[in-house]
Each structure stands twice: as structure tokens, then as C-alpha cells.
Amino acid sequence: MKQKSLLLVTVLILILGLTIGGQAAPKQQAKKAAPKEQPKTGGTLVFGQGKEFTNPNPFVNTTSSFQFVKETAYESLLTYNDDEKIVPGLAESYDVSTGGTEFTFRLHKGVKFHNGKEMKADDVVWSANHVKDPKNGAFGQNTIKDVKSVEKIDDYTVKFTLASPSVLFLSNMATIRMLPIVAANSLRPGQLKLEANTFAPGTGPFMFEQYQPGFETILKKSPDYWGGPAYLDKLVFRPITDDANRFNALRSGDAQMADRISSLDASRVKKGEVKGIVMIEEPFGGYNHLLFNSLSPLLQKKEMRQAIAYAIDKKRIVDEIFYGAARPTDIMMDPQGVWGKAANLPAQKRNLAKAKELLKAADYKGQDLVLIGRKQDAQFNEAFQRMLGEAGIKVKIDILESGVYKDRYVAGKYDLYIAGGTITADPVLTMSEHFYTVKMAKGRYSNPKVDKLFEDLGAEFDQKKRLQLFKDLASTLYVTDLGAVPLCFDIRYVGMSEKVRGYGPPAGKNYREGSSGNYFKRVWLN
Question: Using CA atoms, how far apart are residues 377 and 463, in angstroms rounded to an integer?
């Protein structure tokens, strides 16, 4: 009985959390998660830009840094989400006809332009026709030219009819490059420049307030933004073209964000040598590849092109020229994305012995190959000259002014040159500029089979079939023909103060410069 009583007392002690001595037993304190920061409204963010913003006309200069600024004020019918998938934007939904030539968009209701007017089908039709008219100088005129007609079905429904099926139409619709939606009759026919501080009304989270060439461009938040007002009151884009000055502005607090931070300064931040700054990487900011002049008798020999490829050390390019701030690649698409995985190309590695063997097969007699470049490319070109020289290939470098450089490659007066660009979500948009015959300058690679594959890719809506078509295209271009040598992607860095919150994609997703509108509408300052 005593044993049972003792057991009962013990159980009660344990339940009450007491010791035999009557002292409170220490309790396990549950770890509390740090309270989530709540966004703050208000404030001005100054962004130091490496390129000067010019011309706020929403239809012209809609690439690179210009697109970056304009996508805070202007939007398109579709957009890309953080997974880089096409999703509805100003259109709440869309349908594609069975034949792939008719695209019907149903618009969100209640979307207001910056002048207070509701966006309707008439505005979409006017914007599209403005882009289609060559005299308006719209950047998207070349991509929208295949649209036969744009038709208003009702106030909130618009139908685009294409001359032929095109899956690329949806990709083109997902940025403002082809078709920003602007209030009807905002510009006169043929008007390229806007009157001082008079802006075409868009639908974005911010609206232009002030623009003065060579000075700051100021945007303020749109209080009636259909996606909910932004947190910031204002965005200031300040041109600071010198790399050192731009980084110093970020360090001193004169700017809260800055783009195109040099790889050396980015490295200092990563190593902890510079405090109070956070770096965001765009891992595929720009590609670099070596192009051959197909009119050169020597380079028409595949063995010669192969010898050059084997002489190239991509890792050395990354280390010597980009100080590690680049990624070697064997394809002009994200190597780890769906297109890179579908291509599954063999890695291209340096092999000097193989290069020399191929030079003999090509009957190379030590002739000079002319590599053209600009002054800012000198280090890149000199690295190529040294690498190819180690294999016994003589390279003469012609450093040219930008205008002369462009004239030379358009006329096909070169043997080699290193070209660059920015990848898009679709390989046809990224690669056709360099390898589709009708889009190329004189002397560039041309193959009817590759042309046909580009055309089939552009017309095929089934993704599995598209991936197989791309595998065939990549294999033909880079292995069978060796029409060019992919080199690397340079990493672009955006620096920001630790006080900046909410900018950029979720963890694990790639940063995209073209998503500025999506990023800035959720940014706030702590």
C-alpha cells in the first residue's frame, strides 16, 4: 500500500513539474521563431545605373537597362513568374486556337492607367497598331509584324490573328519588348520623343514623374495600381557610368542599390571586406561565343574550326578575363535548364595535341586569322590570341571603333569575332539572331537544316516535341557542323544596402533583370 502511495506521489510530482525538495523543475523553453519583418511603406530608393537611361517613350529602347526602368511603369498582357513560366499579366486568361494562329486574351477588369482611365480592349488594339506601324520606331515592330490583325471582341476581350502558327508569340507577349500596353492615343503617329516631363500613361506599380537627359529619372508609386500599391513612395534612377564611383555611391549610402558591380568589388563584398552591402547575381547575365566567317576558305574546313575549338581553354577565360565571375558553357542557354538538359551536349575540353593534329588535316600553313574587336574587348581578344598561339594558330587582332567594328562584321570582313547577348526563355528568340539565315549578317553560319529546325521550333506547341527538335538543332549546330564555339556566361552583379528588403526572386530562383516591375513593387526600406 505504501509503495502504491509513494508511486502516486511521484506521478503527481512529475505532473506538477516539482522536485521532491519542492523546487520548480526547469522547463524546456520552446525556441521562438524570429518575428517576421513587416514591410514598411514610404521612402525613396536611389538606384545607381551603369548605363544612362534615355527616352521614356514606352515603345522604343525596351531592352537591357532601358527595359529595366520602363517595366516599373509599363506592363504587358502576359508575364514571367519566378519559375520563369509564362503566366497572365494584364490579361487574366488567354486561349490559343487549334491551328495556333489565333490568340484571344481576356483582360482584367478595373485596371487603371496612370491617368485614371480604365484599361480596355481599345487601348490594347491601339498599342498593338502603334507598334506595327514602322514610322513609330517601336522596338517590337520586327516581332509583331507577323500579326495580321488585332480585333476587339468586346470591352475586355482582344483577339490577335497571326499569319502562321507561332509558339513564340506568347514569349514575346510576356515582356514589354514587343507590346507594352499604353492608354490609347497617348502618342502622335511618328512621335519618338516625348515632350518634357509629359509621359504616356501605363499600368505599372510606378509612374514617371521627372526625366531629364543625363540626370536622374524619377518615378512615384501609382496609388491605384491594380496589383496593390507599392511600398516605396519613389524610385530614383541615377546614371553613374564609372564602376568605381557607382560602387562608392553604394558604400556611402548615396545610392541604396546599383547594377553592374565589377567582379572584383563583388568579390570584396562576398569575402566580408566591405560591410553593409548584399550582392545579387544574375548567373546568365550575358553569353559570349566565338563566331567564324563562313566565307573564309580556311574556316570552311571543319578540321580548322575543330582545331580552334580544341585550342580554347574556357576555364582560363573565366579566370583571366572575368576573375572567376563567369561560367563556362557549351550552349547558349542555361546549361541546367530544360533546354540545356535536352541538348545534353558533350563537354568541350582543351586538347592541344588534338588541335595540332587537326591543323595538319586542315592543311594550315600558318596564315593569320583576323579577330576583330573593340577597345573594351582587348583583354578578351588578347587571351584568345595567346591560347590559339599555343596551338600554333596565328591570330591578328584588329581593334576598331564601335561603328567601324559593326560595319566590318556586317560586311563579313573578318575571320573570327566574339559576340555576346542575353538569353531569353526560348532558344529561338536567343539563338536565331546568330544562326537563322534570314536574320544574319554576311559571312555567318548558314545551314538549311538548322533553318528548318528553327521554323519547326517556332511553330510547335507541344513541349516534348520542341525539346526533341532543340536537341537535333543543338547537335547539328555545335557538334556536327561546329558553327560556333560557346564560351561562357558572364555573371552580372546587383549590389544593395542591407536596408533594402524584398528585392529579387525567392531563394533558389534565378535573378532576371527584366523582372524589375515585379521586384520593385514588393521592395521596402528597413
Answer: 38
CB atoms within 10 A of CB 398: 16
Q: Which amino acid is at 512?
A: R
pLDDT of residue 5: 38
User: Sign of dihedral through CA atoms 447, 348, 83, 495?
Assistant: negative
Give helix 448-459 / helix 463-475 axis angle, nearest 10°. Answer: 160
Give the pLDDT of residue 32: 55
Give the Å distances, CA to CA, from 509 to 174, 337, 405, 412, 451: 18, 12, 37, 40, 33
Amino acid letter, residue 436: Y
Cell of 354: 588534338
The pLDDT of residue 33: 55
Return the exposure string of 485-505: e unless at least 16 CB atoms fall within 10 Å of the residue's CB, then b. Answer: bbbbbbbbbbbbbeebebbbb
18: DSSP letter:
B
Half-sphere exposure of 7 (CA within 13 A, CB side): 4
Can you list the residues of the chain whose pLDDT is less than 50?
1-30
Could you tell me if 371 and 417 are in contact, meaning their C-beta atoms sit under 8 angstroms apart? yes
Q: How far apart are CA 176 and CA 70, in angstroms?
A: 8
pLDDT recorded at residue 487 = 95
d(CA 3, CA 7): 6
- Please answer whether residues 233 and 43 qualify as being in contact, where contact means their C-beta atoms are separated by less than 8 angstroms: yes
| Side-chain-side CA neighbours of residue 106 (13 Å) | 5
Measure the CA–CA gap between 82 and 507, rounded to whole angstroms: 10
Q: Is 2 buried (19+), middle (13-18) or exposed (0-12) by CB count in 10 A?
A: exposed
b/e per residue 88-119 (b: at least 16 CB within 10 A) = bbbbeebeeeeebbbbbbbbbeebbbbeeeeb
pLDDT tens digits for 251-268? 999 999 999 998 889 989
Which residue in 97, 98, 80 sits closest to 89, CA to CA? 80
* 235 grid coordinates: 524610385
* Alpha-carbon torsion angle 521, 523, 525, 526, nearest 10: 130
**Strand 395-400 to strand 369-374: parallel, antiparallel, or no bridges (unpaired)?**
parallel
Q: Which of 45, 42, 104, 140 is nearest to 429 (CA)?
A: 140
Report yes or no: 60 and 192 within 8 Å, Cβ to Cβ. yes
In angstroms, the CA 371 to CA 449 distance is 28
Q: Cell numbers 557610368 correspond to what residue?
A: 241
Going from the C-alpha of 176 to that of each of 128, 138, 260, 403, the distances in angstroms are 12, 11, 22, 28
**Whole-number pLDDT of residue 19:** 33
